[in-house]
Design goal:
The complex is a heterodimer of chains A (343) and B (396). Helix content of chain A is 39%, strand content 15%. Chain A has 343 residues and is an alpha/beta fold. Chain A folds into 2 domains: 227 residues, D-Maltodextrin-Binding Protein, domain 2, CATH 3.40.190; 100 residues, Periplasmic binding protein-like II (D-Maltodextrin-Binding Protein, domain 2, 3-Layer(aba) Sandwich). In chain A, α6 links the parallel β9 and β10. Chain B is α+β, with helices and mostly antiparallel strands and 396 residues long. Among the domains of chain B are: 51 residues; 211 residues, MetI-like (MetI-like fold). In chain B, strands 1-2-3-8 form a 4-stranded antiparallel beta sheet. In chain B, a hairpin with a 4-residue loop joins β1 and β2. In chain B, α3 runs antiparallel to α11. The longest helix of chain B is centred in the first third of the chain and has 33 residues. The termini of chain B are far apart. In chain B, 31% of the residues are buried. The chains are: A alpha/beta (343), B alpha+beta (396).
Chain lengths: 343, 396
C-alpha cells in the first residue's frame, strides 16, 4: 500500500505538470471520457461496499450514481476507485478521480490548504467508540490508559488525541493503514477500543465481527466526541462541476421532501404542483441553468431514488445496519437535511 | 569536394564543428542544459499548478502542532508536539529496527551459513530448510504471520502470562518488564560506557602489538568486556548505586510502569531478522566456499581446531568476498523496514503518511522521506566501504 501512496504522490507531480499544458475543466474531461471516476472507500458496509456480484452499493456510492445520472442520464456510467484514507486526497488532487464520495469529513484545512471543495453533507455523523462488553466500560470517560485502534490520516485520529488531552487521559494508539487490518487488530484483542465515525462502528459491528463472537458482544459507547459532516469533495477550481455534484445531492433531498420516489416519479411528471414540475423538468429551465439535461432530476430519482430511499436501503431500517434517521432526517421532521429550493 | 576536404583535414586546422574536443564539449553542455531546462520546467510548472489549485506548499507546516498520537516513541512525544518532531520519532523508530535488524541478522545469518557447511547431517539439513523457507516467501507475508501469531495467540492483559516471579508479563499488548527508575546517573553511565569501549579498543590494540612483538597472548576480548562494562559500573557505584526499579503493574486496561516491547515492533524485527538472515547465510556460505581448499587444509596441518581455523583463517579471508554483497543486504533491511506500515509499527513512512494526509503536502513530504532514506542508506554504504577497504588484501 505504501507503494500506492508513493505512486500517487509521483502521479500527483506528473498530473500537476500535465495539467499546465491542457488546462481543461473537470467537467469537459468527464464528458469527453463518457464516465465519472468516483473515489470511494475500500469497504464500509452501508456506505461503500462491493457486493457479491462486484457491484458497488451504499449511501456514498449512490451519490456518485446520482451525479452520473445527472450528467449522462445513466446512473451506471461510473467507475469506482477504492481508496484508503491515506490515498484519497492525493488521488483527488492529482486528478486520478473526479470526485470523492468516501465518508470524508469536511474541515477547514481540507477545504483550504488541500485545495478541495466540499459539496453538500451526505451524512451527519459523529465519532464514537466501539468496545467489547466484557470490558464493562459504560462511558468513554472511563477509557484512561486504553489501547485504541484507529485508521491513519483521518479526522478520527486527531479527534481521538484531542478528546483524551481535553479529559486529561492517556491512550496508546495502534495505527494500521488498511481498515480491515485495523478491525482485525481490534477483534483479536490487540486494542481495547476501536474508534471511528459512529455510523462506521455500527457497520463494523453488523458486518465484520468474526465468528464465534456475535455483534451483541460489542457496544458503541454513548459519547459522540465530534461533529463529522461527511460530504463528497471535488477539486478546487471547477465550480460548474462542483455545482452539478452539489445539486444532484440536493435534488435527492428535495425529491424526498416533495414525496417523489423512484416508484412514483413517472406519475409525478403529470403533477400540477409547479415546484414538482420545475424539479422534474416538466417546466424547463433548471437543467439548462446547471448545464445538464432538463430531465436530470427525473433520471436521478428514477435510477437511484430519493435521499430517503437511498438511506433506508443502505443504512436505515431496510438494511442490516438499522441506523435511525436522527440528524439525517429531513428538516421538516426534525433533522438537518435541508436542500435549498430548486428554482 | 569531399575528397579534397578529407585530404586537407590532415594538414589544415579542422573547422570547429568537426573538432572532436569542441564537439564533445558542445554535446555535454547541450545535455546538461536540456536536463536543467526539464528540471526547471517541472519545478516551475508544479509550483504554478499548486498555486492555481490553491494547494498549500512550502515547509512551514513542520513547525505546526501535529495533533496525532504515536504509539511507540523513543523520545518525548505528545499530540502537542510539532510535525517535525513526529517525523523525527518516525526516523528514530526506523533506525532502531534497522540497526537491531542488521545486528541480529548478521549473527544469525553467519551461524546458519556456517551451519550449512557443517558435516553434521541434521544441522546441515535444518539450515538448508531454514534458508529455503525464509528466502522463498515474501517478507510481507511473514510480517502478517508473526503479527497475527502475536496478537491472536497471546492472551489479553488481564490474563497475561507472567514469568520470573511476576516481574515480566507477556500478553497481546507486548512484553512488559521492569526497568531502573530514571536517575540522573544514567546519563553519566552512558558516557562511561563510551569511555569503557574506547578503553577496550585501546587494550585490544596493545595486546595485539605485544603478541606480534613477544608472542605473549593476552585475553584481550574478555578483559575488554570487563573494561567496557566495568567503567559504567564504577560510575553507578559512585552515584550511590540507585537500584529502584519501575515495576509493570496491571492498572485498568493495561500494564503501567516498567517498559514494553510492543507486538508491532517484535513482529517487524522478527520478520526482518529471519528473512534477511536467510540471504546473509547464503552470502557467508559463498564467501567461505570461495576460499581455496588449501586454506583449511593448511590450518588443519598447523594443528588448529575446526573452530579456530574458521575464526582465525577462513572467516577473515571470506570477509573480503562477503562484505560487498552484505552492504546491499544491510540496505535492504533498512528499506524493508518500511513494510512496518502494514502491521502498524510507527516508522518513518507511517509518520510521513499521516503528515501528508493531515497537511495535504505530498510533494514536500515525499522529498523528506526520500532524503531521510537516502542519507541513512548512504551512511551505511560509506561505513561498509570504509570497512571493506580496511579488510582488503594489502599487497606487499
Amino acid at each position: 500500500m505504501r507503494n500506492i501512496s508513493m505512486a500517487a504522490a509521483i502521479g500527483l507531480t506528473a498530473a500537476v505538470v500535465a495539467n499546465a499544458a491542457t488546462a481543461g475543466t473537470v467537467l469537459d474531461t468527464v464528458k469527453a471520457r463518457g464516465a465519472l471516476v468516483c473515489g470511494v472507500g475500500t469497504g464500509t458496509a452501508g456506505f461503500m461496499l462491493a457486493d457479491s456480484q462486484g457491484k458497488w452499493v451504499g449511501l456514498d456510492v449512490d451519490v456518485c450514481r446520482a451525479v452520473a445520472a445527472a450528467l449522462f442520464g445513466d446512473a451506471e456510467k461510473v467507475k469506482f476507485v477504492p481508496l484508503s484514507s491515506q490515498q484519497r486526497f492525493t488521488a483527488l488532487q492529482s486528478g486520478e478521480v473526479d470526485m470523492l464520495s468516501n465518508n470524508t469529513t469536511e474541515t477547514l484545512t481540507r477545504d483550504t490548504a488541500l485545495g478541495l471543495d466540499f459539496t453538500a453533507v451526505t451524512y451527519y455523523d459523529g465519532q464514537g467508540f466501539l468496545v467489547n462488553k466484557k470490558l464493562g466500560v459504560k462511558s468513554a470517560k472511563e477509557l484512561n490508559g486504553a489501547t485504541v485502534c484507529v485508521a491513519p490520516g483521518t479526522t478520527t485520529e486527531l479527534n481521538l488525541a484531542d478528546y483524551f488531552r481535553a479529559n486529561k487521559m492517556t491512550f496508546k494508539p495502534v495505527v494500521i493503514e488498511k481498515v480491515d487490518e485495523v478491525r482485525a487488530a481490534f477483534f483479536s484483542g490487540r486494542c481495547d477500543v476501536y474508534t471511528n465515525d459512529s455510523s462506521s462502528l455500527y457497520a463494523t459491528r453488523t458486518a465484520n465481527v468474526p465468528p464465534p463472537a456475535k455483534p451483541e458482544d460489542f457496544i458503541v459507547l454513548p459519547e459522540i466526541i465530534s461533529k463529522e459532516p461527511l460530504a463528497p469533495a471535488v477539486r478546487h477550481g471547477d465550480n460548474q462541476f462542483a455545482d452539478i455534484v452539489r445539486w444532484s445531492q440536493y435534488a435527492m433531498v428535495e425529491a424526498e421532501e416533495y414525496g417523489i420516489t423512484s416508484k412514483n416519479v413517472d406519475e409525478m411528471t403529470k403533477s400540477d404542483n409547479p415546484t414538482i414540475k420545475r424539479i422534474l423538468g416538466v417546466t424547463p429551465g433548471m437543467g439548462k441553468a446547471l448545464g445538464v439535461d432538463e430531465k436530470w432530476v427525473y433520471n436521478i430519482i428514477k435510477q437511484v431514488g430519493n435521499y430517503g430511499e437511498s438511506f433506508d436501503r443502505n443504512v436505515g431500517m431496510g438494511s442490516p445496519l438499522k441506523i435511525e434517521r436522527g440528524l439525517n432526517n429531513l428538516w421538516t421532521k426534525g433533522g438537518l437535511q435541508y436542500a435549498p429550493p430548486i428554482r | 569536394m569531399a575528397v579534397e576536404a578529407l585530404g586537407s583535414a590532415h594538414r589544415v586546422k579542422v573547422a570547429p564543428w568537426n573538432d572532436p574536443v569542441i564537439r564533445g564539449w558542445v554535446f555535454q553542455i547541450v545535455v546538461v542544459g536540456l536536463v536543467a531546462g526539464l528540471a526547471w520546467y517541472l519545478v516551475s510548472n508544479t509550483i504554478d499548478n499548486l498555486n492555481r489549485q490553491k494547494i498549500a506548499s512550502g515547509f512551514d507546516y513542520l513547525g505546526r502542532e501535529a495533533g496525532f498520537e504515536i504509539g511507540d516513541s523513543m523520545i518525548e512525544y505528545s499530540p502537542a508536539s510539532t510535525y517535525a518532531r513526529a517525523i523525527w520519532v518516525g526516523i528514530l523508530n526506523t533506525l532502531r529496527v534497522a540497526v537491531l535488524g542488521i545486528f541480529l541478522s548478521t549473527i544469525l545469518g553467519t551461524l546458519i551459513g556456517v551451519g550449512r557447511l557443517s558435516p553434521n547431517w541434521l544441522l546441515n539439513k535444518i539450515c538448508v530448510w531454514y534458508v529455503e523457507a525464509f528466502r522463498n516467501v515474501p517478507l510481507l507475508l511473514w510480517l502478517f504471520l508473526f503479527y497475527k501469531l502475536i496478537s491472536e495467540a497471546f492472551p489479553g492483559p488481564k490474563q497475561a502470562l507472567s514469568a520470573l516471579w511476576g516481574s515480566m508479563f507477556l500478553s497481546n499488548r507486548g512484553l512488559y518488564f521492569p526497568v531502573p527508575m530514571a536517575d540522573p546517573i544514567h546519563k553519566w553511565m552512558g558516557v562511561a560506557l563510551l569511555i569503557g569501549i574506547a578503553g577496550a579498543v585501546a587494550l585490544h590494540r596493545w595486546a595485539k602489538k605485544r603478541q606480534e612483538a613477544t608472542g605473549q597472548p593476552f585475553p584481550s576480548i574478555l578483559a575488554g568486556f570487563g573494561v567496557a562494562l566495568g567503567v559504567p559500573f564504577v560510575v553507578w557505584l559512585l552515584g550511590g548505586a540507585p537500584h529502584h526499579l519501575s515495576w509493570p503493574e496491571l492498572k485498568g486496561f493495561n500494564f503501567e510502569g516498567g517498559t514494553v516491547i510492543q507486538p508491532e515492533f517484535t513482529a517487524l524485527l522478527l520478520g526482518l531478522v529471519l528473512y534477511s538472515s536467510a540471504f546473509i547465510a547464503e552470502i557467508v556460505r559463498s564467501g567461505i566456499l570461495a576460499l581455496h581448499k588449501g586454506q583449511s587444509e593448511a590450518a588443519a596441518a598447523l594443528g588448529l581446531s575446526r573452530g579456530q581455523s574458521m575464526r582465525l583463517v577462513l572467516l577473515p579471508q571470506a570477509l573480503r568476498v562477503i562484505v560487498p554483497p552484505m552492504t546491499s543486504q544491510y540496505l535492504n533491511i533498512t528499506k524493508n523496514s518500511s513494510l512496518a506500515i502494514a502491521i502498524g509499527y510507527p516508522d518513518l513512512v507511517a509518520s510521513i503518511n499521516v503528515t501528508i494526509n493531515q497537511t495535504g503536502q505530498a510533494i514536500e513530504n515525499i522529498l523528506l522521506i526520500m532524503a531521510a532514506y537516502l542519507s541513512v542508506s548512504l551512511s551505511i554504504s560509506a561505513f561498509m566501504n570504509w570497512y571493506n577497504k580496511r579488510i582488503a588484501l594489502t599487497e606487499r
